[in-house]
Amino acid sequence: MTSLHDQLADHISQGVIPPYQYSYPPRSAYRPLEPGAWDVGEVWDRDLANHQSPELNLYLHVPFCNVKCGFCNLYTVISTDQDVYDAYTDALCTQIRDHAAIIQARRLRTVYIGGGTPALLRTEHFEQIFTTLAEIYPNWRSTVEEVAIEATPDSVVDNPDGFARLLELGLTRANIGIQSLVPQEIREAGRSRSNEDVIREAVRIVQEQGLPDLSTDLIMGFAGQTPESWRHSVDELARLEPTTVSTYFLTVRPDAWFSKTGSYQYMWDPALYERYDYAREVLTGAGYVQEGSVRYKKPGRGGYVQKVLTFRGVPLLGLGVGARSYTSVLDYMTGSVRPSAKEVADYIRKARNHELAPVTGFPLTGEEIVRKRLVLDTFDLDLSELDRFGLDRIGGEVTAVLDAAETNGLIHRLGRRVQLTPKGFKYRDILSWMFYSEHVKTLDREHYEGLHKANRRARKTMGADPVRITGIDLKEPA
User: Fold this and answer.
1) Domains in the chain, start-ordered, CATH in brackets?
2) Which of 19, 89, 220, 463 is the most exposed place for a label (fewest CB within 10 A)?
């Protein structure tokens, strides 16, 4: 039997690239919940008892986009209908008020408005959201460390005055999706409006307006991307000096358009890790420090506070049609996992009538709480924090994985504290997968096998060539 050390070494040598581990259990492990079986108030009351210092991250989901990127499998709906935006904002604010007791029982640490492209909303929509938040949590601007929004370069360029107003309302960070600074690759992503000139103009606008934290991203592995074009994007972005940079490997999940059409080959190639190495060298040389496996920040300025806190076990309350909530009792959604205009309409109606309840999710046992922290937080984790959740019950398995990680040079051990080495940052997603429970792996596999079958049926109907998905037992755990 192959040892864990050898398995891990083999995955590294193959250049296996699992999807970025940003949640555990992943959405693919969610299953329908029995109607009425889970009361939101009771879930959060039970969660409160598990935290010595009650804190909270707040995520507000706005699903609307004006285009659908080929690689995106997020909950998005194509719409620029302002009447729909009005109704949706009303529903979201109603849902915020309905969760007042949950928010008030904790110290609010972050507010993140994600999507979709929330920057498509008008200024008055954001004023309504922040006014509602102030109604139930008057001191939110004093306690919240980060107020963030997702935007596209063209949404900033089209409405610079609206962006300036967001800064007045308390915005501290904007995630502006760039993906590439090579025109052909931008078109490949389906972002034809966000050309290089628009990207540079958006960066100039937010920097001149004094945004504290400009967060940008680049993607490794687009079709047609070369080592030279990757280096161009990294070099040019470093010259623009955003405060935060994320570099992601492209993951084509089977519910993204690239995979549905069969027009994209999933790339697992050790050479892609050379692009990771180049980005790390350039960015650290430019004064950035590595905050996570994908993220670099300017010290004292950049970073992604909500993600860091969530990885450390601070619960997240997700409101909006496609939002997920993360607690120590139940991870759940109150809406469908399949985005559509109908689902948005159903969400608006149910929010208005105070009828939203968990419909899909994953109940967390003590073992899964332990695994969640190990999957997400090996950057710097004190294992003694997990003792009260029953670490000893899977202690042998955890020790074996950590031993394999240490002998492969991925972690430091400082007493009971675990920290990733530079090599560990690089291969963190491979290591994280090794902490998955067999139950979650099975649910994940069933979910993606179902999507692949549906895609194959659809491609036969369309007459498209089949997509080639390469993988081992690590395939698509996101």
Assistant:
1) 1-25+365-453 (1.10.10.920), 27-311 (3.80.30.20)
2) 463
